[in-house]
Amino acid sequence: MLQKVAARIHPTTWWLLAIVLAVIAGTASALWQTAAIGALSIALILLFRENATWARSLGFYLTLAAAVIVIRILFRMVFSFSSDEDQILFHLPALTLNLGLGEINLFGNVSLRSIMGAVLDGSRLAAIILAVAIANTLANPKKLLKSAPGALYEIATSVSVAINLAPQLIESFNRVRRARSLRGRSKRTGQLAGILIPVLEDTLDRSLLMAASMDARGFGRRSAQSAGELLAARTLGLAGLVLNLVGIFILLSGFNVALALVLLACGLLSAGIGVRITSKRNARTSIGRTARTGLDFLIYLACTLALVINFSGLVGV
Amino acid sequence: MISLKNFTFSYGSSDEPRLSRVNLDISAGEFVLVCGATGSGKSTLLRALVGLVPHFTGGIASGKRTIDGQDFSTAMPHETAHLIGYVNQQPEGAFVADTVLEELAFALEQLGVPRDQMIERVDAALAATGLTELRNRKLVELSGGQQQRVAIAAALSAGQKILILDEPTSALDPTSAHELLEFIHELCRTQNLTAIIAEHRIERLIDLVDSVIIVNNDATVSHGKPAEQLAKFAFVPPLIELAQELRWQPIEMNIESATKRFAAEFKNQPRKIAHLELGKVLLSAKDVVVDYANLRAVDHVSFEARAGEVIAVMGENGSGKTSLLWALQGQNPSLDEIAMVPQQAADLLFLSSLSDELSDSDEVARAKPTSTASLLEQFTSRLDPAIHPRDLSSGQQLALVLAMQLVKNAPVVLLDEPTRGLDYATKKQVASVIRDLAAAGKCIIFASHDVEFVAQTADRVIQLEAGRVIADEPVEQALGWHSDNALASQIAQISKLPGVIALQQVVGNE
């Protein structure tokens, strides 16, 4: 049931939600906030994930998040900066290193406060990781690519075909490894080369087969575009790139923030128009383009509200 | 509808042409079979018709290609995508989408068909191919036969009037293959579709096609009525071979008429299949079970195999044949006891020249130098030792891997689909190799869909269904004539004599 709902939500919406949660997690100042965001992320993933390859990575993200917290705590124990006024949790034998660059104190007293600080820091990162996991497990990458603008269609299709091929690569790897064991141990090449060569060969064959089949089905057709339009699109694209670079430079140098923002806006606009013009070149249509529904706008609203509450809260503090 | 005029193609200016001065004219609604020996250029011809040759292969092409009177000699394949639908040998490897609906819509999307029309056309294509209830299913969940149908539906979804198929049935069991070909035949009759189809197993569509194109080994091509074309063709199924052997004029093209003629003319006593004296038990399987995540592939299979015995494992796609062979192999991990040739034999090849592969094989098997090479020579004509193993034809690769595995001199040999994509002549060679091995006291177990090959080769047939053994009987019984036996060989169907399944039982004198 919920999976069906999830399939109707636009993939960019999941990404937006993930980014908003990550931003809130990044500014969180209390453990309960990061814990809440982490729990919310896990709950969303468990409730909405589809039965698909990209949706099976929650375990990986959970491990990564846990590892981040543990590493943070371990680091804090090694480079403990506890002052003596703090409540000391336990003592470790202190170690003072002098490498000619001044003394470094390792281990020693470990205070409750420093550990709590490490947990908060770690949980903040962990919450960001879990928030990103929402996007990666719930947004169908192929649908996301389909909502790419027409000018990027060829690239987007290549990427989505590559995603399709990835599981086949694993399958052919396993098949070849199994077949390889039938031959007996050869002294000529290492075990790896004996597997890689047939797998690469297989992949190359498959790619050529796929390319031929896609071309025979009309991939790469385009409608004629006038030289003027092409020139305009390229000029606009280049201008956008230059404006953006200059804008970023000025922004980072702190010379004039307002000017930088204006330049960046112009650059983005120019590049956008360029892509628009190139997109017209494709006479292509699409059957599966996911439209945004009320559900998407509901999520946008929730995101905005969350951001407003979060930042007004920050300001209030 | 589609024609080639004076079409010549070669990979380089100094190379032998792969297609030489081809003249073809195929009319609308025609169902055409393309046949030829392994490596003769059947696929090249089909790809030339689609426009993939020379655009996707490199090489030099000259001549004219017209579709519906329009000249498309230099057109890229995507420029004719609205006219020709093309399905290659492994459609499952060429799917671009993950659901049936999206796969069918792909060509329409490329052609810029508006969305509402697109859905109409997809639904029409689904209805025409009988796939309506699979509309929203994932492609990976479908069976091989269904996937093949989806590929055809996808190739025709934009209303293409020409369908070009490269060996669509090579991976299908007899029942699925028959259904698929009947279905294409039906499309030709009802929708006036022009279908051009390359196929090794001529027997599967011999009485369905309107004409036959033969690609000869000298790169020339001839096109004509099936009976005339096949009367002189060397790579033919038992039905035609029988007619050739008994000097029937004209040859009979379908089982029914051949049956009548055979009943009227055949007066001799058919010979019995010569089985070898069996030796000791070499392999004994007891309650073999293979489980995958949510599927039991092999379910309590038990049998014994003796020296001098050739056992064919048959069954529909997904019935557990391959899993059973791997399980048998896995029970005796020592390569000295069991040798196996997997379905994709080329997976075993990874060195850069034939001579390297051969000498490495001798070393691995601790055999005398050139042992593998002399075995290989029994199966194929002499090969250039410097050739890259990947450049060998699939039949030659199979022969090489077979030689590499046999040189280990294991008493039990397992073969998984050893005849996939081979022509009749090569199949006969493989069959005689297998019989020789059995005569030398080995035990051979192979999985196959190929009824005619099994009839020539096996002593005993084990039939699997959903991982269980449903029959384990002598070959004469498994492939012999009795009512509604889907596995009856052509000779069994024609002769209607008990225990007669192979050509050599009814022709020639001994």
Give the termini separation of chain A. 42 Å
Beginning-to-end CA distance, first to last residue of chain B: 51 Å
Strand content of chain A: under 5%
- Number of helices, where a helix is a run of at least 4 consecutive DSSP H or I residues of chain A: 11
- Mass-distribution shape of chain A: extended
Q: N-to-C SSE series of chain A?
A: HHHHEEEEHHHHHHH
- Derived structural class of chain A: mainly alpha
**Topology, number of strands of chain B:** 18
Q: Helical residue percent of chain B?
A: 25-40%
Task: Please state the oligomeric state of the protein chains shown.
Answer: heterodimer
Low-confidence stretches of chain A: none
Overall average residue pLDDT of chain B = 88
Main sheet characteristics of chain A: 2 strands, antiparallel
Which structural category do the helix and sheet elements of chain B fall into? alpha/beta
Question: Main β-sheet of chain B, in a few words?
Answer: 6 strands, mixed
Shape assignment of chain B: globular
Rounded to an integer in angstroms, the radius of gyration calculated over CA atoms of chain B is 24 Å
Q: State the share of residues found in helices of chain A, binned by percent.
A: over 70%
Uncertain spans of chain B: none
The mean pLDDT of chain A is 80
Bin the strand percentage of chain B: 15-25%
Structure description:
In chain A, 71% of the residues lie in helices and 5% in strands. Chain A is mostly helical. In chain A, the strands form two sheets. In chain A, strands 1-4 form a two-stranded antiparallel sheet. A two-stranded antiparallel sheet of chain A has the order 2-3. In chain A, strand 2 (95-98) and strand 3 form a beta hairpin. In chain A, helix 2 runs parallel beside helix 11 (294-316) and helix 4 runs antiparallel to helix 5 (112-138). The radius of gyration of chain A is 26 Å and the shape is extended. The model of chain A has no long low-confidence stretch (mean pLDDT 80). Chain B is α/β, with parallel strands linked by helices and 510 residues long. In chain B, 34% of the residues lie in helices and 22% in strands. Chain B has helices at residues 42-50, 52-55, 100-111, 115-128, 144-156, 174-191, 226-231, 238-245, 255-265, 321-331, 354-364, 371-379, 394-406, 424-439, 451-457, 475-478, 490-495, and strands spanning 2-10, 19-26, 31-36, 60-67, 70-71, 84-87, 162-166, 194-198, 211-215, 221-224, 281-292, 295-306, 310-314, 338-341, 412-416, 443-447, 460-465, 468-474. In chain B, the strands form four sheets. Chain B has a six-stranded mixed sheet. In chain B, strands 14-15-16-13-17-18 form a six-stranded mixed sheet, sandwiched between helices. Chain B has a four-stranded antiparallel sheet with strand order 2-1-4-5, covered by helices on one side. The radius of gyration of chain B is 24 Å and the shape is globular. At the A-B interface, helix 7 and helix 8 of A face strand 6, helix 3, helix 4, strand 14 and helix 11 of B.
